[in-house]
């Protein structure tokens, strides 16, 4: 199942495999002296993801040296003029993450049920089905097109792969103790420290990777709690699994805190917040706390909708101009958009309560932790971020969604065991949904094959963005210039007309957008 899922993930990336550097790829690679190898490796450690010094006021403050290092290796291998090499690495990483998600779902399903004396869980039916559903769901999810099809998405791919390895190592610490008993403390500590180092490496690829330790702690507690259900103990006594879980969590927390302190003290500008504009995140500049809270909650609901129904996707979800930025704000509790926010938050709260109250719901607890914790750094809940919504930040949370859907599917399959017709209907529904997602994923990957297609798709999906139609107009003007150089005057004229239409659209969205007016000669 894992191999099938990995193959599907790789095949779906084919439309964008020969795509050029587009959108954020240009400043991250083509204009980044660190990625191009124009600076020393030591300087790479002191600059942000886009090549600016972290101590500078205009720094993005995104510290991802391991990701930049891999981009630099790509440049050394084949140069920046061959984007296919970058895409091949991204495709391979995406396939590896997909296979890991499939294997994780299978392992979690096999962990269910009562345990025998040695503490080894029996394998219930549905493990293979869970692996197939999780892998196929993750591989075919259209929201991954930006992370897998865009070169900048390398950060998400690396962070997700290392985060999954971190969780696996952390849970290996408990297995070490169950095998060796009290003599296994050294091995247990070694596994925990290895997990912390993997989480640190994930964070050096993308900031979301730091949440891997939190996911690992939840996963360890959920698995140990499920394994201990067969043991006899008095109701008021401390569960036998709890001291070990607390010991591992304490060691991981201390090591993680030490790494955070080192990062803040040793990296220039590591503790300073990023300065951004209202165009980047208009909610952060709202005066009232209630407005910010309701607006942020609605953005969470929009992210949830993208995970559940990725029908409209765009490379940019920002809003241009004060009038459009105001449309993103919710200033009254009577705004209908609060209903969507309340629905999402209520659903998460109910599922969390069920996971806490049901020891055997370890799959639910782990799936929710992978869904929610990696989303925290980009949710505005901890600190303001420099974007309204970014699809590539949903790459890691979608792992949690895939695990949850796989668990629900396996449970439904088990419940329908007496009914052959019911099982066939369930598999048919899964196949239909997978085919629909596969088609949408292929179409979205195809938009990353050219700048014009990407920006045109973004302009259709996000009517508040002036950047998308403007960028489309510029890309079409460049294509027209190339046609003119080759003597295709008629083709160049058609492209120029389309370019002017896009620029006029950008001015309709934001009448004060000077770059569009300048390109139109107004």
TrEMBL record:
UniProt xrefs under InterPro entries: O-mannosyl-transferase_TMTC, TMTC_DUF1736
Protein name (Swiss-Prot/TrEMBL): DUF1736 domain-containing protein
Signal sequence extent: 1-19
PANTHER family for this protein: PROTEIN O-MANNOSYL-TRANSFERASE TMTC4, PTHR44227
Recorded GO MF terms: mannosyltransferase activity
GO CC field: endoplasmic reticulum
Organism in which the protein naturally occurs: Prasinoderma singulare
Domain DUF1736: residue ranges: 272-348
Pfam families reported for this sequence: TMTC_DUF1736
